[in-house]
Amino acid sequence: MQALTRKRTTRRALLVGAGLAAVGGGGLIALRAAARSAYAAAEETVWTPPALRPERPDALRTTLVHYATLAANGHNTQPWRFRLEAEGIRIGPDPARRTPVVDPDDHHVFASLGAAAENLAIAAGRFGLAAEVAPGADGVFVALSEAGTAPGSSPLFAAVTERRCVRLDYDGAQLSAADWNAISAAGTLPGVDVAIHTSTADRNALAALVVAGNTAQMGDPAFVAELKHWIRFDGSHAARTLDGLYAAASGNPEVPAWLGARLFDYAFTVESENARYRRQMETSAGVAVVLAETDARAGWIQAGRAAQRMALEATARGIRSAFLNQPTEALGVRPDLMAFLKTSRRPNLVMRFGRGPLPPRSLRRPPEAVIDA
Ligand SMILES: Cc1cc2nc3c(=O)[nH]c(=O)nc-3n(C[C@H](O)[C@H](O)[C@H](O)COP(=O)(O)O)c2cc1C
Fold it and tell me: Which of 54, 88, 235, 274 is 20 to 30 A away from residue 32, measured at CA?
């Protein structure tokens, strides 16, 4: 078995080596530079929603949808459809953008709709509208009305265009009690609780659960294939699809897509990923677990809203965050997470927080691509 593995590895290494030789060092550098600049241009467009153009019908609501799409969402599939209605904006799932292996019951799809609804509601306040978020079994409706208050920015609104998941090591420093209180308060919504864990013992216990979840998931070829399908190994590819997980944003090298796919097969191992997760947990200041009261779509939407609010509050304070949901997703590990949390509820989302570097933001499809006529 070992010999077989070595043989396969050698073949892969040869393939990669041959590929590199074919492209040539200079050619590779030029390709990387072109991919990076295509990505940077797309990032600028996505994360700078245009100023309102009142002459356009639905200009304001289209702008609100733009802000909504900047929310966190599973694998960056952007699993949402928006409908502009007289009383507000309806956000429903896009079945074509499910991730059935990692998320068979669509928990993450509906949590992503909640995150988008939260961004939309926060952006509405910027334009002087009051927003009421109503989660349901089919999705979430954001009712919009005149607020009777002056339009104005807020720290959370300013954070909407700065937030991103930072899947890198943090600096290992603690956060202040004031920071944790603010993050926890931001995530506490009707029907949702947040449990914060900052001690070394708790972070070690949670790291072990993340590693157990990751080990189970990476042992499933369907999980790995689904993940690989959504990875964008080069910036030009990401700029064409405007979705997916940009490899360089997670600290991986920018390489042509064909080469990235081969490197992924070669370098993406259980050992390397588990070591990365242990390091990430060690260098984080703490972990928040989101727990909704009800294990149904409305509860999952509320959990997504809570996660988005915590990430925005953290961003406003210069604090990074990222998800580590493996122990909620791997069904064999979830009961151990519940035992650790001493809860009978299904844990919805696991997020780590800390201070650290700032990678590029991931891309989004424009409002026109996600609004139904
Ligand atoms: C419900 C949900 C589940 C997620 N699960 C994970 C996860 O387990 N691991 C991870 O690294 N990111 C996870 N993410 C983060 C998304 O991959 C990320 O939001 C998406 O790629 C867009 O990138 P951005 O948040 O940096 O804009 C999750 C996000 C949501 C909303």
Answer: 274
CA dist 239 → 45, 235, 267, 302 (Å): 11, 6, 24, 31
| Nearest-CA residue for atom 11 of ligand 1 | 323
**Distance of CA 163 from the midpoint of ligand 1 (Å):** 12
- Separation of alpha carbons 282 and 53, rounded Å: 47
Atom from ligand 1 closest to the CA of residue 111: 1
Give, using CA atoms, the residue closest to atom 3 of ligand 1: 74
> In degrees rounded to 5, what are phi and psi of residue 66?
-55, -50
Going from the Cα of 20 to the center of ligand 1, the distance in angstroms, rounded, reads 31
Q: Is the pLDDT of residue 103 over 70?
A: yes
* Residues framing ligand 1 (Cβ under 6 A): 72-76, 108, 111-112, 115, 164-165, 167, 245, 304, 322-323, 325, 361-362
Asked if residue 178 has pLDDT above 50, the reply is yes
Q: pLDDT tier at 159 (50, 70, 90 boundaries)?
A: very high
Greater confidence (32 vs 77) lies with: 77
- In order of 37, 118, 235, 360, the CA distances from 41 in angstroms are 6, 27, 10, 12
Does residue 176 have a pLDDT over 90? yes
How confident is the model at residue 50, as a pLDDT? 84
